[in-house]
Structures are given as structure tokens and as C-alpha cells.
Write a structure and sequence with these properties.
The complex is a heterodimer of chains A (about 90) and B (about 180).
Chain A: E1 4-6, E2 15-19, H1 24-35, E3 40-44, H2 50-62, E4 71-74, E5 78-81, H3 85-92
Parallel strand pairs in A: 2-3
Antiparallel strand pairs in A: 1-3, 2-4, 4-5
Chain B: H1 4-18, E1 21-22, H2 26-43, H3 57-60, H4 70-77, E2 85-86, H5 88-91, H6 106-109, H7 128-134, E3 141-145, E4 151-154, E5 171-174
Antiparallel strand pairs in B: 1-2, 3-4, 3-5
The chains are: A alpha+beta (about 90), B alpha+beta (about 180).
Amino acid sequence: MESVKVPGKNNKHKVLMYALSTCAWCKLTKQFLRDNSVEYEYMDVDLCSEKDREKVKRDILNRGGEPSYPTLIIDDKVLISGFRKDKIREALEI
Amino acid sequence: MITLERVRQRAESDAKTNGCYLNPDQDFLNDLFEGLKKNEERYGYPSCPCRLASGRFELDRDIICPCDYRDPDVAQYGCCYCALYVRKDVFEGKTLIQTIPERRPKEKQDRAYGIIGESPLEKAPETVAVVAVKSSGIMMKMWYCKQCGYVCFREDPPYICPICKAKREMFAELTMHTVS
């Protein structure tokens, strides 16, 4: 499973994002993280292999979420579904 | 090859026909059009840019834009799942767009996982009976609108009749019997 790392000055938290390459909400979320110089990793699930899609789904389900995009996982603990600025800000302290 | 302009025209015309509006945020709208274009090039049909598609037409049928869930979502939440289509008050800026819950049933969402790579149907099915058998275990049925008589062949009845706008409750299953 390959994820893309986007560097940023704000690297206090580990941010993983499951996204779709075609999704406008995912694009907004990526932009929001970049605008706030947040370091993050993302994976475009629609471009993943069948096996990796299944892994992503299981990972989201195991963390109590529903497989929808974008899904953010912060510090392996907090799961945020959808582009929720307020929740992202709170979790990342920005 | 499908152009961005064609995607836009199609959406504009559909919004007009169905009494909804396009998202007033032009940059966001363009991103959605790009996504639809990409999906159409990739799969051969414009599946929802914000949902994971399986790549198989019969499994993605309900999320081809405008998706089956658009009309009830626009009516209830003010926008569809990806927010391409919005309600009048949202278009006019009186109501804000928010992330809305997924109306698509879970068992249909699951179809996008673990089936890519399977070969698509080799030949166009010739009869209705063949479609029913070959659609990966999906039960296709005939439905008719009790108000206007519109008939369709699909898994579930539409939320809203595309002809007379009657609600889903007005649809009944059509069964055929051979009388001997």
C-alpha cells in the first residue's frame, strides 16, 4: 500500500488521509492541510489495487468509521469523516 | 472523447429539467466536472466523483451522475452527496452547504471493494432474462409507476418517477406470468 507524503512545517501530529483522486471534498481537505502547512500522508483509494482497497476499508471499519472519502486518521486515534474544518482544527490544534 | 464543456452542459440541462441548481462555487463545481470527466474516461460512465466506484456498470448504476440519491438528498439536505446539485435556497446563499450522510445502502457501497480486476461482461446481453442472470447476483426487477405508468427494469424503484415526479411509494413491482 503506497501513500504519498506531503511535507509541512506543522508535523506535531501524524495525519493519514484516505481520499479519492476525483473527489472535490478530498481536494479541499488536501488544500486546507497544505494552507496550514500540515505534514500529511494520503492515499487515493480509487487508484489502489483491489487488495489495498480492501485493506483501507478494513482499517476504517476497525477504527469505527464508515468507508467514505475523505477520511482522516490523526495520530492513529482520531477518525474524521468528510471535510470537517472544525474537527480537523481541533484535532490538529490549528 | 468527452469534454469538460459537455459534462457541464449535461449537468446544467439536468438541473433545469429537475428543478434543482448547480453549486454556485465555480471552482468547486469545476473540480466536480473534472472528476466526472475522469470517471467517464476511466469507466465509460460518469460515476459520482466523491464515491468509490467498482468500475462495473451494473454495480455502479445507482451512483452514475445524477445518482439515484440526488433528488431525496437535495430535498432533505439542500445538496446531493458530492454537492454538485443544490436546492434553490442553497444556490441563493441563504443556506450553507454541509457534509451530508451517505444515503447509498452499505451493501451497495461494499460492491466497490474486492471486485476490480474481474472481467466486465463480454457481450451486450440480448434479452432481459440474460441481464437478470448475469448481473453478479443482483436481482433486477420490473417496476411501474402507478401514477403515470412509467416502467423501468432495475434493482430498486427510483426515489422519484423521472416522468411524473411521483414518490417512490407510487412504484409497484410488475410481475409477469405465463398463462397456459
